[in-house]
Amino acid sequence: MKHYLLLYIWLIAAATSAYAQKAVPDSSRQRLADKVWLRHIIFEGNKKTKKGVLLREMSIGENDSLQKQDLETLIDINKKRLLNLTLFSEVIFLTQVVNDSTIDWVIKVREQWFIIPEFTLKLADRNFNVWWNEQNRDIRRANLGVMLKHRNFRGNMEQLSATVQVGYTQKFGLEYFKPYIDKNQQHGLGASFFFAQNEETFYTTDSNKLRFVKKPGKYIIRQFEAAALYVLRPAYANKHTVEFRYRDFKVEDTIIQLNRDYYKDGSRSLQLMELTYRYDLNRVDNWNYPMTGWKVVGYAGARIGIKGIGFQSYAMGEVGYFKKLGRTKFYFAEVLRGRLGVPKDPPYAFRYAMGSNSEYVRGYEYYVIDGTHYGVLRTNLKYELINKTIRLPFRYLSVIPFRIYPKVFADVGYVHNSIPGNSFLNNRPLYSGGFGLDFVSTYEFKFRLEYTWNHLGQKGLYLHINSE
Questions:
Q1: What's the whole-model pTM score?
Q2: Please, what is the end-to-end C-alpha distance for the chain in angstroms?
Q3: N or C: which end of the chain has fewer CB within 10 A?
């Protein structure tokens, strides 16, 4: 009986073992067939840029195990990440099969110019239309400058630049930023300073228009700023920035006689320290001109006056959503931006809201709308009409992307101002709509041509050399 029992146990064990040997390898082979091992990532063409900097931007690394079905998507994601560095005009992925379960990636890149002497002719006015129509195309209101900038100093994405500008605004500045100071490539440091002076400047806002004063042969306003910043980038799409800035401004009596509130209480000078914190969560496909994805930007700051100003604080935010509509060439985009500030009666020099830089409701480019709080919502529907690549026989300009997007758009905005005045656009809804064309090319070049109507019944054609 004992022998039969032992034989029975042995037969069960043998059968179980045979089943396991039959079943498990089949499943294991299936899993192995679905995955590949990325043995090496090899870069070619990066004569200056170091490999470690490029690997830091990628979502996967050497010796990672990848699903075969995800390879095409991973290649597309990492190609966009490398192009977002704005160091390359072209990025090509090649997959080399070592065996059934092992691959290598060969990534061929074309480096752009890193040392770019930028000779600029910039208008001192807020936009081209203001200069052309309201300032009578006065060439004296232009700035001629040269900026020598190295965008990839020592191959580590360090940025070093010097700026000299003459014309309407005399300006000199130096900037340096090192994105990674640690082995894990998460911490960065930077510093900058600049000095500027003008013979002419605006001193107040009258009926939503800037009023200017000038003293020929004498500088009427001088500005000096020095800053240090710290950056923490724990992940590809997340970045924290802390900046400490010292600012020193001086104006002539002429400005104070016209506006005693320029720096508050008739002061001719202003000195302050400013501490700011910024958080970026950027999950768009292209940082230069996003078409899909979303982003969130939060910004908070405080100014502590040393002379001529009290305590001020403000908070700003931006949310952007970008989406391709199905399998069409249509793209939808919506961007919401806004600011809150205290106190409600800051000096005139810090009362700006809409009307400068990228803060405006389209169709109101001729107006300045001051205030402590504001918000603007921009909606766009675009169509990809042209997406071409022009090849040239030049080493650093071998590829020029060229894209054109016809679009329709609508904006709404609001500016709150607690200080009474003769403004007719503050404390009321602003809205506009129109159509236009966006031109996008290499070296972050963007050009917008827009025809817009606003709520005042005004319409016009506007030019902008930036994105929205």
A1: 0.81
A2: 89
A3: N
* CA separation for the pair 226, 455 (Å, rounded): 41
SS3 track for the chain: CHHHHHHHHHHHHHHHHHHHHHHHHHHHHHHHHHEEEEEEEEEECCCCCCHHHHHHHCCCCCCEEEEHHHHHHHHHHHHHHHHCCCCEEEEEEEEEEEECCEEEEEEEEEECCCEEEEEEEEECCCCHHHHHHHCCCCHHHEEEEEEEEEEEECCCCEEEEEEEEEECEEEEEEEEEECCCCCCCCEEEEEEEEEEEECEEEEEEECCEEEEEECCCCCCEEEEEEEEEEEEEEECCEEEEEEEEEEEEEECHHHHHHCCCCCCCCCCEEEEEEEEEEEEEEEECCCCCCCCEEEEEEEEEEEEEEECCCCEEEEEEEEEEEEECCCCCEEEEEEEEEEEEECCCCCHHHCCCECECCECCCCCCCCCECCCEEEEEEEEEEECCEEEEEECCCCCCCEEEEEEEEEEEEEEEEEECCCCCCCCCCCCCEEEEEEEEEEECCCCCEEEEEEEEECCCCEEEEEECCCC
Rounded-to-integer distance, Cα 424 and Cα 422, Å: 6
Parse the chain into domains and list their residue ranges.
34-111
pLDDT digits (tens, 9 = 90+) for 206-260: 999 999 888 888 889 999 999 999 999 999 999 999 999 999 999 999 999 999 9
Contact between 315 and 338 (Cβ < 8 Å): no
Answer CATH for 34-111 from 3.40.50.2300, 3.30.420.40, 3.10.20.310, 3.40.390.10: 3.10.20.310
- Confidence band of 33 (pLDDT split at 50, 70, 90): low
How many residues does this entry show for the chain?
Answer: 468
